[in-house]
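Could you help me review a protein record that somebody else here produced? Here is the record exactly as it was handed to me:
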Amino acid sequence: MAERVVVAMSGGVDSSVAAALLHEQGYEVIGVTLQLWGKDICTSAGTRLCCSVRDAMDAKAVAKRLGIRHEVLDLAEAFRATVIDYFVETYREGLTPNPCIACNDHIKFGSLLQYADLLEATLIATGHYARVGYDAPTGRYTLSRAADASKDQSYVLFNLTQAQLSRARFPIGELTKPAVRGVAHALGLATADKPDSQDVCFVRDRNKNGFLRRELEVGDEPGPITDTDGAWLGTHHGLLGYTIGQREGLGIAAGKPLYVVAMDRPRNRLIVGSREDLLGRTLFAERVNWVSIPPPAQPLRAWAKIRSRHEAAAACVSLEPGDRARVELDEPQQAIAPGQAVVFYDGDVVLGGGWISKTVTSGE
């Protein structure tokens, strides 16, 4: 009897090809499309949200083409509680969230994995660009970067446990994006030329600020702009419109370029400074997860990636009590944002990572 695998089919080309490759390899594939928003939003085929009717129809069409079983799983309540509310509350606290990591942790490798158990499936697969391996000497499964560095998504998977990783498959991890589309064309899949989804899938029209204003029930409340010493420089028009590292649109006449260094949301204060004030060499991480290796007994050298599009920087990682770590970067890095993840690499292998809780910048 063929091994059964549940494939998270979003209605995009990546997950479509993931399902197709596993089907070709002889697995019994069950495609599952996740409904992540309530029916009041998911009724329009034209919506660009992640669970639109069009996406579900595309996934169903691909499943029919492949001759595999297809189901729709309603996870709207779980998605609201573990991803959207987390996203909103993290901004309320003045931090920078990463909803993709939360979705992988709680939805794709949480609720969907539980559903796979109900279907008596031993494996779960997604269209992520990453690779799973097995290190026989240590008996551990490993997570590594994708072959296509430009599409690599290993950063957002750092929080997987060994139990989750042992059952995870990323069929397109060895392929480039053009190769994935080539497979889709060769198989006549309806998603072959479908554009990639947006970064924050649940935000309409990519208007993050408008979404947060509605969720937080706040308006554009003006407040002070100060330098790092607290001196008043001007007035901002609502903190939700700014990001760490931003230079344009500050509306301040100064003799040198100024950047957003921090946002003090409790005081509705925007803090600006020089480019040097954005640089930091030390950060602290909490809830550290070691995915490919056991927790190291001694400080280790690694490449630290402080956001998804950041080029990893050389660092020394030292463990601290309570699943925490201190990260000393060899060279100062710009705009390290508490709330984001720092992920540690050894070459292509993801050693682990954690959530940035504090950073020490030149401006402090």
